[in-house]
C-alpha cells in the first residue's frame, strides 16, 4: 500500500517536537510556511497537522495557530481498538516487541471466567514486552481462543497479531470492553519491564469481540506509570 503524502511530514514534525526543536507551548510555522518548507500543498500540511492534533502533539487554536503540547508522556487512546504496530506508527519512536512466553494452554479458573470458557478449552498465551526508545515500558498478556485462531507463531507475535488475524484469517474484529485499573507490580512485571523503582503499573484490561459478538480474546496491557497518558475524545450531547 502506497504511503500517504502527509505521513512523512507528520513523522518529521513529531521528531522535531520530541527532540525539542519545537518546545512546549511554541507555535508551529503557518500552513503556508510548512507547505513551502516541505514542498507540498496546504491540504497535505493540513492533514499532517490534523493527525498531530489527534495524537496529542499540538492544539490548533483559532487566531493563534498550532500550539505544541507537553509530550513527555505518550498518548494512549482509551476508546480506540488499535494494535501496537498501528500505535507505534503514530508515536513516531523507535520500538521493539520481545516475546517471552508463547504456546497453547488450558485455562485456569480466572481465565475461564475472563473468556467465559470451559476448563478443557485451548487458549493461546502470549507474553510480550514493548520496548520504546530502548526501555521496556509495556507488558502485554494476550489470551486468544484456539477455536477462532487455529494457528499462531512466535514470529507473528513479534510483528502484529491483529494484522495476521484480519489479513490472513479474515476475522472481523469489531469492539472491545475495557477496564483501566492501577495494580501493584508483579514479579512478572519486574522481570519483563524496566520498572525504574515504581511499585504500581496501569493495567488496561481488554475483552475483545468479533463482528458476531463472540468473545475471542482477553488482554492485559500493563504500562509503566510515568510514560503514558490515557486519552479519549468526548462530545457533549445537546438536548
Structure description:
Helices cover 28% and strands 34% of the residues. By secondary structure, the protein is of the alpha+beta class. It folds into two domains: 6-68, Arc Repressor Mutant, subunit A (Orthogonal Bundle); 74-231, Chorismate lyase, CATH 3.40.1410.10. The strands form three sheets. The chain has a six-stranded antiparallel β-sheet with strand order 4-5-6-9-8-7. It has a two-stranded antiparallel ribbon with strand order 1-2. Strand 1 and strand 2 form a beta hairpin. Helix 1 packs across helix 3 and helix 2 (31-38) crosses helix 3 (42-54). The longest helix has 13 residues, at 6-18. It is globular and about 65 Å long.
Question: What is the topological layout?
Answer:
Layout: H1 6-18, H2 31-38, H3 42-54, E1 58-61, E2 65-68, E3 74-77, H4 84-91, E4 95-105, H5 109-115, E5 123-132, E6 135-145, H6 154-158, H7 161-167, E7 173-184, H8 187-192, E8 200-210, E9 215-224, E10 228-231
Parallel strand pairs: 3-10
Antiparallel strand pairs: 1-2, 4-5, 5-6, 6-9, 7-8, 8-9
Short description:
The chain is an alpha+beta fold and 239 residues long.
Which features characterize this protein?
single chain, 239 residues, alpha+beta, Arc Repressor Mutant, subunit A, Chorismate lyase, six-stranded antiparallel sheet, two-stranded antiparallel sheet
Q: Give the termini separation.
A: 43 Å
CATH architecture of the largest domain: 3-Layer(aba) Sandwich
CATH C-level class of the largest domain is Alpha Beta
Strand tally: 10
Q: What would you report as the Rg, rounded to the nearest angstrom? A: 20 Å
Amino acid at each position: 500500500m502506497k504511503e500517504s503524502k502527509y505521513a512523512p511530514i507528520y513523522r518529521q514534525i513529531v521528531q522535531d517536537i520530541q527532540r525539542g526543536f519545537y518546545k512546549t507551548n511554541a507555535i508551529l510555522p503557518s500552513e503556508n510556511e510548512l507547505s513551502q518548507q516541505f514542498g507540498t500543498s496546504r491540504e497535505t500540511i493540513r492533514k499532517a497537522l490534523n493527525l498531530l492534533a489527534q495524537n496529542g502533539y499540538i492544539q490548533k487554536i483559532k487566531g493563534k495557530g498550532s500550539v505544541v503540547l507537553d509530550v513527555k508522556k505518550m498518548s494512549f487512546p482509551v476508546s480506540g481498538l488499535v494494535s501496537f504496530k498501528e500505535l507505534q506508527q503514530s508515536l513516531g519512536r523507535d520500538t521493539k516487541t520481545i516475546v517471552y512466553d508463547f504456546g497453547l494452554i488450558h485455562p485456569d479458573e480466572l481465565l475461564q471466567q475472563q473468556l467465559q470458557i470451559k476448563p478443557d478449552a485451548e487458549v493461546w498465551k502470549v507474553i510480550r514486552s514493548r520496548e520504546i526508545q530502548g526501555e521496556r515500558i509495556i507488558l502485554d498478556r494476550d489470551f486468544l481462543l484456539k477455536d477462532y485462531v487455529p494457528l499462531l507463531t512466535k514470529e507473528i507475535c513479534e510483528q502484529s497479531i491483529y494484522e495476521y488475524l484480519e489479513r490472513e484469517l479474515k476475522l472481523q474484529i469489531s469492539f472491545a470492553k475495557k477496564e483501566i485499573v492501577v495494580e501493584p507490580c508483579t514479579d512478572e512485571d519486574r522481570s519483563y519491564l524496566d520498572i525504574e523503582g515504581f511499585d504500581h503499573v496501569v493495567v488496561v484490561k481488554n475483552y475483545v469481540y468479533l463482528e458476531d459478538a463472540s468473545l475471542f480474546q482477553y488482554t492485559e496491557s500493563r504500562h509503566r506509570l510515568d510514560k503514558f497518558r490515557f486519552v479519549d475524545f468526548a462530545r457533549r450531547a445537546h438536548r
